[in-house]
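so my prof wants the structure for this chain in the C-alpha cells format not the other one, which i didnt know existed until like an hour ago. anyway here's the sequence
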Amino acid sequence: MRALLVDHSAPSGLRLGEAADPEPAPHQALVRVTATSLNYGEVAHRTEAPEGTVLGWDAAGVVERAAADGSGPAAGTPVVTLGADGGWAELRAVDTTMLGVPPTGADPGAISTIPVAGGSALRALRRIGDTLGRRILVTGATGGVGRYALQLARLGGAHVIASTGDPAAHGDGLRTLGAHQVVTDPTEIDEPVHGVVDNVGGPQLVAAYDKLAAHGTLVSVGHVTGQPETFPFGALYGNDGRHDRSIVTFYLLDGADIGPDLGWLAERVATGDLDPGISWRGGWDRAEEAVAALLERRLHGKAVLDIG
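here's what i got, hopefully its the right format
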C-alpha cells in the first residue's frame, strides 16, 4: 500500500512511499482510508518516530474487511476511525471500539476532522459536567479542539467564553461558531466560570484556574506553550468562597469505547450542527505544505489530506 512515511531526510519529515499492508487482529477492521486530518501534536513530534513509521491519529474511509471476531460494521460501511498511528495510509487496521459510523453520503474530509479534535472536546466537556446555563471558558479557541469545544458547549446551553491570541482577527468567526464573549487572555474575564477546556497550558492554565467558581473544573487538554504551570502562593487556597475546584488531566486514547461518540459527532457535522473548520485541504502529495502551515501556526482550524 502507499503511505506517508517518516523520512528524516525530507524537509517535512515525511514522504510518500510503499509500506506493508497492515494485518488486523481479530478485534480490528481493515479500513480503506479516503481522508485524514492532521493534528499539531502528531506533526510536531513526527521527527521523534523511527524511520519508515506510518503515523496518523485521524482517518475516515470504508471498511475493506470486517473484524474476524464479528464486532464492528460490515465490509462496505463508511467509518470514521481513531488510533495511535496508521492513519496516513491507504489501509488501516483499527479496533472496532475506535470507529464510528457516519451518515450515508457524509464528506470523508469533514468527518476525518472529528476523532482527536471532536472527541477530545466532547469528553472534556463531559468531565466538566452539566453545561446548561453555566459559564464555560475555552482557551486556544481557534484550534481544532477549541472550535469543537465552543460549539458543543453552546449546543449544551452554556454561556461560552472563547480565548484567542488575536480577537481582532478571529473574534467574528468565533462568535459565529457560538462564542458569547471573546477575550485575549483569561485575566480579562470579569466573572467566575464553572468550567474550562484548556488547550494551551502554561501561564494561561494558571490564569484560567484563577477564574474558576466554587466546584468548578478545569480540564487540561493541550500543552502547546511548552511552559510550566507555576501557581503563586495562595492560588490553591479554598477559603475565599471558591473551594472544591479541580484541575483534571486528560488522555483520549485510554482504551474506552469511543465509537458511539465518533458516530454522534459525525452526524452533527453531516447535518451542519457542527462546523469542522477545515482551513486547508489538498491531496496527500501536498503533505509538506500542510505540515509547514500547521507548524508555523498559519492554520486556524483543521488541515485535511485526501488520500489516493
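also thought this was worth mentioning. The chain has a mean pLDDT of 95.
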